[in-house]
Sequence to fold (103 residues):
Amino acid sequence: MSDNHSPAHAHEHKSHKKEYLVVFLVLAILTAIEIWVAETAGISKMGKGSSLTLLAVGKAFIVAYYYMHLKEETKWTKLIAAVPIMAGVYATVLCLEAIYKPF
Fold:
């Protein structure tokens, strides 16, 4: 019978409270920037759209990296998670090109 309490199986629990608080504050600041960008009158429609898209992608990356624990995964798992993100960015670029391309 195996002993699950042996030193080889002992895992020290590390508190992530400080890290999660910092991530929460960063997300709150990015959200405040998004609101500011959306409400600012002097920014062009393209500038607002681009800024808000980049901020949203940045926030999604932070959430995935910290709260979904991608930072603790292997390189292959990170690559697998990055493929849909790259496809989404590519689709966004194609849509923007179709919208703003002069005919």
Notes: The chain has a mean pLDDT of 79. Residues 75-100 form the longest helix (26 residues). The two ends are 74 Å apart (CA to CA). Residues 16-100 form one domain.
